[in-house]
Amino acid sequence: MSHTVRLRETLAAVPAYKPGVPTVAREGVTAYKISSNENPYPPLPSVLSVVHDAALQMNRYPDMAVTELTQKIAQRLDVPAEHISTGTGSVGVLGQIIAATCDPGDEVIYAWRSFEAYPIVVAIAGAVSVQVPLDPSSRHDLPAMAAAITPRTRLILICTPNNPTGTVVHQDELEAFLDAVPADVLVVIDEAYLEFVTDARAPNGLMTYAARPNVALLRTFSKAYGLAGLRVGYGVAHGPVAEALRKTAVPFGVSTIAQQAAIASLDAFDELQHRVDALVAERLRVVAGLRHQGWHLPDTQANFVWLPVGADTVAFAAAADKAGLAVRPFPGEGVRCTIAETEANDRLIHVARNFVVARTF
Predict the structure, then answer these.
(1) Which of 159, 206, 307, 348 has a CA 20 to 30 Å removed from the CA of 36?
(2) Which residues, including other chains, have CB under 8 Å from residue 306's CB and lie 6 or more apart?
(3) How many CB atoms within 10 Å of residue 264?
(4) Which helix (DSSP H) or strand (DSSP E) does residue 236 occupy?
């Protein structure tokens, strides 16, 4: 006799995460993956050395409290260590945040389109996503988000720079928004791309969190620090919230290798800053090149550009793939393209130019 195992009904509403795909190898063409917002630079030698040493201990459980890295982050940010909670990348910490704030049926407000993990993690918890459309400039519509707050709202996510459009909210806009949020609703500022920001109007997340008990920060070592494959991120929040995040963390989730690599990366940030500066310079060059072709692009502050090609999204992705570039298409909306190696960026500009010409005639 066969039986069907009873699973949670809410899983039927969980959308699938679509990771960036690699390109298909083509003869005589170097393929570039610019679909996952990865740092194109290889690991620093100093970080690799630490990873090698840490790997010798892989038969042992890691420090569950992530003590050494927590202390290092706290010192770097000049915040109390008890305000830090680590996890398996910023997505892992996001899951901890939702587990700590939401019962089934509670509401989570965020802009859309934004980071595609948001609806997944919310749905898994049995909570309800309240998606507020971006404004015509592909930026967060904070007044509309404030208007969407109800008695069931438990969490608000603000992704700045926003993934996939790259836009930032401004400090004055954020302050006005936070003044309208009830004190018992947690507002999380997702700063995964913080290190690439050069806009002076962008929020000072640490200052904002310090002044408001219902504000937390979400950060990662995956992007600027180049540790995407090791899965380590952290949250910064006031004591009661940070303690709740530690309670909802997966035990031993952050490996010893990830912890030691993150510590080494913090120690080597002057070296990493040169790489970040180079990527920002490439971003400016790519944006200028695309705008010269007539593209209307949002003002990106991340390590990627957003091409709002709408109905032509799939066609653009196919043209890029033919040229050996894997981009991240969001069908019907646009294409996100990571700033990568110089040759990859040159090729993106070339593909975009040919695409404009093909669509013009």
Answers:
(1) 206
(2) 138, 164, 165, 166, 297, 298, 300, 334, 335, 336, 337
(3) 22
(4) strand 233-236
Write phi, then psi, for 232 (nearest 5 degrees).
-145, 130
Helices (H), 189-254: 205-211, 239-247
pLDDT confidence of residue 349: 98
Distance, in Å, from the CA atom of 288 to the CA atom of 330, rounded to the nearest integer, reads 23
By DSSP bridging, strand 334-338 and strand 304-307 are antiparallel
361: pLDDT strictly greater than 60: no
Q: Give CB contacts under 8 A, 24+ apart, made by 290-296.
A: 290/349, 290/352, 293/349, 293/352, 293/353, 293/356, 294/356, 295/352, 295/356
Q: Classify strands 84-87 and 325-326 as parallel, antiparallel or unpaired.
A: unpaired
**Residue 351 φ then ψ, to 5°:** -60, -45
Separation CA 27–CA 329 (nearest Å): 24
- Per-residue tokens: 89: 């990348």
- Strand, helix or coil at 277? helix
Distance CA 44, CA 303 (A): 19
Q: How many whole angstroms separate alpha carbon 358 and alpha carbon 322?
A: 15
Query: Scanning the structure block, which residue is given the tokens 């909802």?
Result: 248
Q: What distance in Å separates the CA atoms of residue 96 and residue 123, rounded to the nearest whole number?
A: 14
Q: How far, in Å, CA of 58 to CA of 39, rounded?
A: 26
Amino acid identity for residue 287 in this structure:
V
**What values do phi and psi take at 336, rounded to 5?**
-100, 130
What percentage of the chain carries pLDDT values higher than 70?
98
326, 32 contact by CB (below 8 A): yes
Backbone phi, then psi, for 6, in 5-degree steps? -80, 120
